[in-house]
Design brief:
Helix content: 10-25%
Low-confidence stretches: none
CATH class of the largest domain: Alpha Beta
Strand order of the largest sheet: 1-2-3-4
Family: Belongs to the sulfatase family.
Structural class: alpha+beta
Number of domains: 2
Strand content: 15-25%
Keywords: Hydrolase
Shape: elongated
Protein name: N-sulphoglucosamine sulphohydrolase C-terminal domain-containing protein
Distance between the termini: 44 Å
Largest sheet: 4 strands, antiparallel
InterPro entries: Alkaline_phosphatase_core_sf, SGSH_C, Sulfatase
GO molecular function: arylsulfatase activity
CATH architecture of the largest domain: 2-Layer Sandwich
Length: 265
């Protein structure tokens, strides 16, 4: 399959899905119709006989008729995908996948590797799907907004909030420990003018406790750290060193992802 994690080609979005319900769903049943993660909620609600009431309309549909092998026609549907950075989109029907990095059209049952671009051969179908994809993208952009939403802090039901490095915004010479921010940590904090920020939205007023996990060389003990949220400021001092080595997992070839290390609270 073309594509990998993070892409909108078949290899970036396709996965197996297993569902087990003894004596209700036949063992070994294989469903060939396309489905997606958007179908899980309506499917489980339908199987449980629960009304699925949501503030916004659901994009998914219930797969119960397929799981229960019920008679009836199944709609020729379309499932849409968006890359994490919002730069690329694709649409998948039972027969075709359109869009992606090359804006092509591929017949998936015959061409799982997306090698044969049929955009010119099926030009009308390609134009129709690309038009549907453009309309869906505009609808989603209007719904979720162009800017990322702030991280909610202070829900009473979830009193502990982690602000991870991957969601932070480094300033100055500070950077992540890898070109991939996820599962990384910050390095290079040497200047007092540098800092790290998170876009947060405090849900409830009150007193909050802040805990920082860190690594520190002995010569940097005594460094002061200021935490600010709005007009509130809190200052702390690093009073003990903590030196730890990277865990290289015995790699023979260095990876681009961040290696792990221990930190002190």
């Amino acid at each position: 399959m073309r594509g990998r994690k993070g892409s909108v080609d078949e290899g970036g979005v396709r996965t197996m899905f297993f569902l087990r319900w003894p004596e209700r769903i036949c063992a070994g049943l294989q469903i060939d119709q396309i489905g997606g993660a958007v179908d899980i909620l309506p499917t489980l609600a339908d199987l449980a006989g629960i009304e699925c009431a949501t503030e916004q309309p659901l994009d998914g549909i219930s797969l119960k008729p397929l799981l229960m092998e019920e008679d009836g026609d199944w709609p020729d549907r379309a499932i849409y995908s968006r890359s994490p950075n919002g730069q690329n989109h694709s649409v998948r029907t039972q027969r075709f996948r359109a869009g992606g990095y090359r804006d092509g059209l591929y017949e998936m049952a015959r061409d799982i590797g997306q090698d044969d671009n049929l955009a010119e051969h099926f030009s009308a179908e390609h134009q129709r799907l690309m038009g549907d994809l453009d309309a869906w993208r505009e609808e989603m952009d209007a719904c979720v907004g162009a800017e990322a939403r702030p991280l909610p802090v202070g829900y009473r039901e979830f009193p502990l909030t982690y602000l991870n490095a991957q969601d932070g915004l480094p300033e100055g010479d500070i950077t992540w420990s890898s070109i991939h921010p996820n599962a990384s940590f910050f390095v290079g904090w040497k200047n007092i003018a540098d800092g790290i920020g998170w876009e947060i939205e405090v849900q409830h007023a009150g007193e909050y406790e802040v805990s920082l996990i860190y690594a520190c060389q002995p010569e940097d003990v005594g460094a002061r750290v200021v935490v600010a949220a709005g007009d509130e400021r809190l200052m702390g001092t690093i009073d003990a060193p903590f030196v730890s080595r990277l865990k290289d997992q015995d790699d023979r070839i260095a990876r681009t992802e961040s290696y792990e290390k221990e930190f002190a609270p």
